[in-house]
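A note from the maintainers: we've had questions about how concatenated examples are separated. There is no special marker in the raw files; a new sequence line simply starts the next protein. For clarity in this README we add a label.
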Amino acid sequence: MTNPKRIRAKFQCNTITQTMGGRHREIQGEQKYVPEPVYTIEMAPVYESDAGKNAENKKFWDASPSGKLELQCVLKEVIEHFEVGKYYYLDIVEAPEDATKL
């Protein structure tokens, strides 16, 4: 994979929510269910009313007028990088089957 193709999308963060979930963790040699917060980010592509704000948004709207990204994460430090209402680029690049080839 010498020159991977990249697709770029422009999304807006619409919501960030926190719920309680949990994971099984090994504690003193035993698997135990540990409750912990789960953060969910919901994003959508720039939409038509955003397209009138600038030429870049119009280009993205013309290419991808609909969609949704929902990401769940248990790491609060990751969620702190996102803010509701802000725009983010999403770069999509095919991942090699064997990541050691990178």
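[label: protein 2]
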Amino acid sequence: MIKSITQFYIKLAYQLDKADAEFLPLVARLIFGFTLLGFFWRAGLTKLGEGASKFFMPSSGAYAQILPQKFEAVGYDQSGMSILDWLVVMAELMVSLYYHCLSLLALQRGRPLWE
């Protein structure tokens, strides 16, 4: 059993050693990027509201995550939040979704987007 595992490792190490210098970093970035994509995307979607207006009416969880003290001060009632609070929450929601998409694109390119 140990001998077969060792032989498998030696074969795998030999194949990876032969791999091109660009292939391994690409695979590493793909695995890392798509693993985190699901996590970050779900984290951003928790801030969206329900129904067809979900992009314009953030969930109560969004207010609780972004403005926790103010949301607690109004008794966890969304109607008690001002238009400025809504704008702050919407801006953070859009930035978080766009940021995660852009960081994934930059990660797959292997260099910053502005280069």
